[in-house]
Amino acid sequence: MKKMGSHGDEYTCEECREIAENVLLSSGDWERLEGWAINTQEMNPEEYEEIFWEGKKLEEAISDYVRKTFWWSYKPSDGEQVFEEFWDAVKYHEESKE
């Protein structure tokens, strides 16, 4: 591997980053893609992941992964209890009143 900058701080040096990128790309095993990433941590802090989509426009990039839908959100839960199926929402409502 080509020697990094002599300053020893390869994580913040632009020259070092350029050298490292060239090494990755020239190996043939890596490809630099431009797209979008969604981190689901806010939605589910206990079990989350980061999802990446390639594409210039967000709508185009995620078109195979999204669909328009309607759902029921239980207001007292601040959006944490969401039901796409109406009867699931009704069942939760009845159980929460008991």
Features:
98 residues; 3 domains; two-stranded antiparallel sheet; alpha+beta; 4 strands; 3 helices
Strand content: 5-15%
Widest beta sheet: strand line-up: 1-2
Radius of gyration, CA atoms, in whole angstroms: 23 Å
Q: How helical, in percent, are the residues? A: 25-40%
Largest sheet: 2 strands, antiparallel
What string gives the helices and strands in order? Answer: HEEHEEH
Which geometry do the CA atoms define?
Answer: elongated
Structural class computed from helices and strand pairing: alpha+beta
Can you lay out the helices and strands and say which pair or pack?
Layout: H1 14-26, E1 35-39, E2 50-54, H2 58-61, E3 72-73, E4 82-83, H3 86-97
Antiparallel strand pairs: 1-2, 3-4
Structure description:
- With 98 residues, this protein is α+β, with helices and mostly antiparallel strands.
- The chain folds into 3 domains: 1-32; 33-64, no CATH class; 67-98.
- Helix content is 30%, strand content 14%.
- It has 3 helices and 4 strands, in the order H-E-E-H-E-E-H.
- It has helices at residues 14-26, 58-61, 86-97, and strands at 35-39, 50-54, 72-73, 82-83.
- Strands 1-2 form a two-stranded antiparallel ribbon.
- It is elongated.
- The termini are far apart.
